[in-house]
C-alpha cells in the first residue's frame, strides 16, 4: 500500500533530522504526480529563522527535479499527529491542487488524510496576484 511505503521513507528521513535545539525530529515523504518519491527532514539552525521543515525540504527536492505538483505528502513527527506549520501549508498550496492528499501519521495504520483547503482555508495563491 502507498501509505506504508511513504511512511517508511518518512521514517528513514526523520532519523536524519538535525535538531540540536528542539530535539523534535520530523520526516516527510512527497509523491509527485509522476509517481516519484522525495524524502525530507527538518534541519535546525542556531539563529532559528534559517531552519527548514521536513515538508519544505522534500518539496524543494521535488521541484528541483522538475515536478511542480504534489500527489500526496505524508508527515510524521516525534509525538501525536504532526501537522505542517503555516509556512509549510502555504508552500504545499503552491504545489498542490484539489486532488492532493496531505497525510499526518502516527504510524502506518493510524493516520488522517486532508486536502489543502482543510488545512489552509482562504489560502493565498497565484490567483490572488493575477498570475
TrEMBL record:
Required co-factors: Zn(2+)
Keyword Manganese among UniProt keywords:
no
Q: Which UniProt keywords apply?
A: Hydrolase, Metal-binding, Zinc
| EC number(s) stated in the UniProt entry for this protein | 3.5.4.5
Fetch the InterPro entries from UniProt: APOBEC/CMP_deaminase_Zn-bd, CMP_dCMP_dom, Cyt/Deoxycyt_deaminase, Cyt_deam_tetra, Cytidine_deaminase-like
Which NCBIfam families does UniProt cross-reference here?
Answer: cyt_deam_tetra, PRK05578.1
Q: Which family does it belong to?
A: Belongs to the cytidine and deoxycytidylate deaminase family.
Protein name listed in UniProt: Cytidine deaminase
Organism whose genome encodes this protein: Finegoldia magna
Query: What phylogenetic lineage does the species belong to?
Result: Bacteria, Bacillati, Bacillota, Tissierellia, Tissierellales
